[in-house]
Specification:
Number of domains: 1
Structural class: alpha+beta
Helix content: 10-25%
CATH topology: Jelly Rolls
Order of helices and strands: HEEEHEHEEEEE
Number of helices: 3
Low-confidence stretches: 6-20
CATH architecture: Sandwich
Radius of gyration: 15 Å
Largest sheet: 9 strands, antiparallel
């Protein structure tokens, strides 16, 4: 609970006294100017365009216009190496918006995947920013060849109409 409070505080501080003017609806991992929206669980940018995550990660997002009445779609553009899926066959990705759980998604193929979750209007109503949290299972624990915990390779995360 303490960590969730910290993540919410960090998202609130991102908006500062100027609302969500500088916050993006979609965060590209290649755009370092949006890195403050990556709240936790992201490793450094690799090959100029993506980041490995840890098994749990969170990003602050600006809801799109009219989301409080129409809802939105949470999109995660991600990928996994073939070697991970050869070992585990499928990877589950749980998502939530400000603590409201969304249905789990599965990745069963290598290559770039676009995971999507419908976000109800109530989850976005009256909010200038939300925290999207993700949990990946199974994940790769630190090893002798890579000391990092590895969840997914993420290219973009965002809320779209």
């Amino acid at each position: 609970m303490r960590r969730r409070g910290f993540v919410s505080l960090a998202a609130a501080l991102l908006t500062g006294c100027h609302g969500n003017r500088g916050m993006a609806e979609v965060v590209s991992m290649a755009d370092e100017s949006l890195a403050p929206q990556l709240l936790r669980g992201f490793h450094a940018v690799e090959q100029g365009g993506w980041r490995w995550t840890e098994s749990k990660f969170a990003v602050a997002l600006k809801p799109p216009r009219h989301a409080s009445s129409n809802g939105a779609t949470l999109e995660l553009k991600c990928s996994l190496p073939e070697t991970v899926l050869a070992r585990d066959r499928e990877v589950n990705v749980a998502a939530s918006i400000d603590g409201i759980p969304l249905p789990a998604a599965k990745i069963t193929a290598s290559g770039i995947q676009e995971l999507r979750w419908k976000v109800p209007p109530d989850a976005l109503r009256g909010k200038s920013s939300v925290t999207a949290e993700f949990a990946v299972s199974p994940f790769l624990p630190p090893s002798d060849t890579d000391r990092r915990e590895l969840g997914l390779i993420v290219h973009t995360a965002g809320l779209v109409k």
